[in-house]
């Protein structure tokens, strides 16, 4: 079986002659031909796939973005990863977790990477006292 991969598609371009579907298409006056299957990947509600890498968007409150935290990610195989974030999370920050993506087609024992993208949640309002405390903490 040969496959070609496109964006969210896998296309099977030939079937082994020993395959049951191939044997039914052989006989007198019947020309054997390839059977083509196109398999479209189903979108996942939490992960986005790019080749062998997975992308996960994690909402994070502004306070945790500034003071470090741990991110919990439930993987596709139901493991729970606890990823420590020891940096200040800014709008362009992402965390790469090696080997937690999708299996590589050429070597299924190896995996792509997981990239955690952060959606920083800002407060919708602050009291005057909270604003003053933030000014004192951040403007000095």
Automatic annotation (TrEMBL):
Q: Record's SUPFAM superfamilies?
A: HSP40/DnaJ peptide-binding domain (SSF49493)
Q: Which GO terms describe its cellular component?
A: cytosol
* Record field: transmembrane: none
| GO BP annotation list | protein folding
Q: What Pfam families does this protein map onto?
A: DnaJ_C
> Which keywords, in A-to-Z order, does the entry hold?
Chaperone
Cite the GO molecular-function annotations of the record.
Answer: protein-folding chaperone binding; unfolded protein binding
Q: Which residues form the Chaperone DnaJ C-terminal domain?
A: 27-123
Read off the Gene3D superfamilies from this record: Urease metallochaperone UreE, N-terminal domain (2.60.260.20)
- List the PANTHER family: DNAJ HOMOLOG SUBFAMILY B MEMBER 13, DNAJ HOMOLOG SUBFAMILY C MEMBER
The protein depicted here goes by the name DnaJ heat shock protein family (Hsp40) member B13
Name its species. Callithrix jacchus (White-tufted-ear marmoset)
| Organism taxonomic ancestry | Eukaryota, Metazoa, Chordata, Craniata, Vertebrata
